[in-house]
Known about the structure:
Order of helices and strands: HEEHEHEEEHEEEHEHEHH
CATH architecture: 3-Layer(aba) Sandwich
CATH superfamily: Vaccinia Virus protein VP39
Bound molecules: S-adenosylmethionine
Largest sheet: 9 strands, mixed
Oligomer: single chain
Distance between the termini: 64 Å
CATH class: Alpha Beta
Number of helices: 8
Structural class: alpha/beta
Amino acid sequence: MLLNNLKNSSLNLNIHQIFTDSAKAIISNESCYDFIKTVPDKAVTLIITSPPYNIGKKYEKKTKLQDYYLKQEEIIDQCVRILADNGSLCWQTGNFVENSEIVPLDILLYPIFQKHHLKLRNRIVWQFGHGLHASKRFSGRYETILWFTKTNDYTFNLDPVRVPQKYPQKRHFKGPKKGELSCNPLGKNPSDIWDIPNVKNNHIEKTIHPCQFPIELVERLVLSLTNENDLVFDPFLGVGSSTVAAVKNNRRGMGCEIFDEYYTIALERTILAMSGDLQTRPMNKPIYEPQSLPIAKESYIM
Ligand SMILES: C[S@@+](CC[C@H](N)C(=O)[O-])C[C@H]1O[C@@H](n2cnc3c(N)ncnc32)[C@H](O)[C@@H]1O
């Protein structure tokens, strides 16, 4: 779809480019550092983002780690300002890598969140199956999400994000509840280790973006940390995974992307999500397990 057509369809769907209180979605092509200044204090219930990691991807210029820290501090300070008192801020990062030495970005950035007295609720480990094969260290197969709340009075809905129990029919075998189901029939708490496939070439959500969020990862945060109609913001929107996860679940979505190509895809995917036409990997779909290799005869003959 051409950008002009997209912009026309988006207005009909109540998608705007500048901050508008009643918008269903706001998708800006401006730098988040400028856009965020137009957002009123405490307007947003969930901020979920994966910022550039300063590792020289197509969309970023590698800078000194200290300069990167200061730029991150600038945007995080503003994010805290626009976060509602019952809101959550989720900063998803991996490692800065140089000469095969890694700097975990969540550890680097933690003092900024601490400065604002945000409360860390979970350090979620997102593990996935695919990525670069390292030759001088073990291949990296996880990243983290620091989930902070602004106060102790925060939205947290566990039921919509429960995952299937391992033994759903397990029952108490003694005591007053003998014979009754011993686990929650709605499923179990998904814990702080999330096994969700990352978006690589054979993933149904793959676009041209080199590191887009799987939508199911954002959906888990949207469903648990917001209620319907709440506003979800991603300052580094990429191809719109966060706005898609928001509108798909009857929340309002907002984000900024400076790269024109990614911005256009973000707008297109958000429009498709609103009309129910965007294909996404369903939440809780089991992970593909490869068949075990046949054991070579000689390996088990002693
Ligand atoms: C790690 S990617 C995020 C990908 C995103 N989570 C998704 O699912 O597509 C970071 C994105 O931030 C964008 N970006 C970098 N600086 C920006 C800025 N100042 N304002 C808005 N977007 C920016 C980059 O172009 C890139 O697409």
